[in-house]
Amino acid sequence: MQMWMQILLRTTSLFFLTLILIRLMGKRNISRMAPFNFVSYIVIAILAALISANIITNLAFGFIAMGVWVAFPILLDYLSLKSKGIHDLIQGKEAVLIKHGKIMEDNLMKTRLTGEELLRELRHKNAFNLADVEFAVMEMTGEINVFLKSDKKPVTAHDSGTKTAPQAEPQTIILDGNVLNESLSSLGLNKEWLRIQLESMGVSLDNVFLGQVDSSGDLYLDLFDDAVELQQPKVKEMIYANLEKAQPSLMSYALETEEKNAKAMYTKNADKLKLLMEKLEPFLLR
Questions:
Q1: Number of domains comprising the chain
Q2: What is the number of alpha carbons within 13 Å of residue 155 lying toward its C-beta?
Q3: What is the pLDDT of residue 165?
Q4: Which of 26, 30, 25, 21 is nearest to 48 (CA)?
Q5: Do strands 133-138 and 144-148 pair parallel, antiparallel, or not at all (unpaired)?
Q6: Structural domain boundaries, residue 131
Q7: What residues of the chain score a pLDDT lower than 50?
Q8: CB of 243 within 8 A of CB of 233?
Q9: CB distance 134 to 150 below 8 Å
Q10: In the chain, which ranges are continuous DSSP H helix?
Q11: Are 213 and 197 in contact (CB under 8 A)?
Q12: CA separation, residue 69 to residues 45, 48, 50, 128, 211 (Å)
């Protein structure tokens, strides 16, 4: 067998073998990976390249070396789950850089981080003023997380006592002009509902690049033809608008009728509807 064919077969086999080994080592985000794990991946990649290029001619030795660099990280990850001491030894420990608004110079020196680098990392977290930072910690991955002082944190709905509706993940039901039936069914919808929605917007399915339905039932469309302006439907706002229209109508009926029982019924239902609107307003209009 010619050399180029041997390298081709060896490289193809190693490609799929390395893919399987990397998956066995677990899913990891490279930007948040501990240094030891990063080195393991690099060494495995180098060994695979050396074997595929026939620089390591003895396949048995090459696979033994690769097996060690795969097995040991998996073993150490397992031991790290069982022992905090082993975890800290292998993965490292987080370092507190700012505590109660004070920079911990000793920890800054241990992490080999200069003051300028610290300020740059704080700016990445939208903390441009050091006086706004209550706490900052460097994780074992090298990422710095920042906790702002209580009076500098953005106000949330919880802080203001405002009720908000729970949100669920939007479901993509159209992609590249094709209907995703599984996503549509998971929402309890069907193609007939989608057809009616598209007709009401005056849009053909062929012109839809992406379509999503959020937890409120609103359909958002992105079209291939960017020149077309779409009036996106607002299900929640429409529901609230109908309630707003019905409540004054009931009050009007109560004022117009002379029949006591009917007047009492209209007034009672108008009050109930008004109370219902007050309860639903945070969920339908925010």
A1: 4
A2: 4
A3: 59
A4: 21
A5: antiparallel
A6: 95-148
A7: none
A8: no
A9: yes
A10: 3-24, 35-52, 59-82, 84-91, 105-110, 115-124, 157-160, 181-186, 191-201, 235-256, 260-284
A11: no
A12: 10, 11, 15, 42, 45
Q: Which one of 66, 89, 112 terminates a domain?
A: 89
Provide the CATH number for the domain around residue 203. 3.30.240.20
> Could you report the per-residue pLDDT of 55-82, keeping only the tens digit for each?
888 888 888 998 899 888 888 888 888 8
31 CB burial (10 A radius; 0-12, 13-18, 19+) = exposed
Q: Give the residue from 55, 89, 123 where a domain finishes.
A: 89
On whether the CB atoms of residues 22 and 44 are closer than 8 A, the answer is: yes
Exposure string of 107-134, with b = 16+ CB inside 10 Å and e = fewer, is: bbeebebeeeebeebbeeeebeeeebbb
Report in angstroms the alpha-carbon separations of 19 from 25, 30, 45, 58: 10, 16, 10, 21
- Token digits for 21? 């080994």
Region of 101 (left: φ > 0; alpha: ψ -120 to 50; beta: rest) is left
Q: Is residue 17 part of a domain?
A: yes
pLDDT of residue 89: 79
Closest CA to 125 of 114, 115, 137, 113: 137
Tokens for 285, please give them: 């209009």
Q: Comparing C-alpha atoms, which of 272, 238, 269 is closest to residue 253?
A: 269
Q: Is-contact 37 28, C-beta < 8 A? A: yes
